[in-house]
Amino acid sequence: MELQLCDVWRRLLRRDDVGIHDDFFSLGGHSLLAIKLTVEVRRLFQVDLTAADLLSAATVAELAEIVRRGTADRKGQLVRIQQGAGGSPVYALPPVSGTVLLYPPIARAMGLDQPFWAVQSVGLLPGEEPLSSLEDISECFIEQLRTVHPEGAEWNLIGYSMGGLLAYETARRLTERGERVGLVGLLDTRITVEPSGDPDFALRALLWRGLKLNLDVDWLRGLTPDTRAQVLVERAVAAGTMPADFDADRLRRMVDMYQFNLDALAAYRIQPYDGTVTVFRVTDRSLEGDSLPDDLGWSEFAARAAVCDVPGDHFTMVEPGQVEVLGRRLREQLNLASTGAPAS
What angle do CA 152, 156, 161 make, to 5 degrees? Predict the structure, then answer.
């Protein structure tokens, strides 16, 4: 089984030097290849894995154990991205897509010794009912994170975009309960998300950011949901942004997840936090339609809001070439928070 999995990795990663203890993402794996890998595992072994399973078992040896059992030992929405070498872990909360596939490069850039977990949104897997409010989402995440949080350790929470609001709300709730919170890292997160006047915002976001497709949204809107999903799958497969046997049901859940999270964001009313937040602010602000304060307004609600500049714009800050700097800055701020020094 390990030999077969190594062969799959060699083909997907276009490498000859794959060992059973190599990390998929360290060898150049990314979110699309992760999806393709789950498809190959299903084809070869008739075992249906999620991308979250792959993040939890990122080596051939670990993945082979899951395949032998026939299913993963899942901890709800929790995904261990990096085991690290001990110490206080970092917990990453999901952006509006609900997925956590953007976090492995950030974790690696922070250092392989850093324990790192992420939580994906409820509703991405079959049979799951999405949560309707950001407060309920935060409570659900706290309950799950407690199952892996080391006793007595401080809580370090980060989040990209919407994930930053989840990190803030989670930190606020933990502090109210007398728990120690260290780093609260907000990765270019605004304090509010205005309700979109565009009823197709979720569909457009998935089309352009996820599937890289330029299709007529008015035409898509006129299709039935089943036909629309099938068309999108066919076009994405042809464009190379989706594996050949990705199913339409999974695509519908992805679109729905965007909309559920956007609705939860629009209804959220931010409350004061008696602590420090660190805003990782992009230096390229050309995508911003209006002039925003350096701290994106967080000093209005947090006792202290520190600003840490990182290269790129809102989207490229987490991509290769920029994410390495983001990871280093996160590690620096994490170290400052652990010593009680003021964030810089």
Answer: 155
Q: Report residue 32 as tokens.
A: 């699309």
275 and 151 share one domain: yes
Strand partners, 278: 185, 306
In the beta sheet, which residues pair with residue 185?
A: 158, 278
Strand 302-310 to 273-282 pairing? parallel
Say which DSSP state 306 is in: E
Structure token digits, residue 321: 């070439």
Give yes or no: residues 82 and 183 share one domain.
Answer: yes
* Sheet with 155-160, edge to edge strand ranges: 78-82, 116-119, 90-93, 155-160, 181-187, 273-282, 302-310
| 337-343 average pLDDT score | 74
DSSP codes joined into one string, 196-254: PS-TTHHHHHIIIIII-----HHHHHTS-HHHHHHHHHHHHHHHTSS-TT--HHHHHHH
Q: Is the dihedral of CA 148, 254, 163, 100 positive or negative?
A: positive
Nearest of 146, 35, 137 to residue 95 by alpha carbon: 137
**Whole-number percent of the chain with pLDDT over 90:** 38
Q: Which helix (H) or strand (E) holds 118?
A: strand 116-119
Summary mean pLDDT of the chain = 86
Angle at 21 between CA 20 and CA 27, to 5 degrees: 95
Domain final residue, candidates 74, 101, 128: 74
**Domain harbouring 46, CATH code:** 1.10.1200.10
Question: In which domain, by residue range, is 220 found?
Answer: 201-266
Domain identity same for 114 and 185: yes
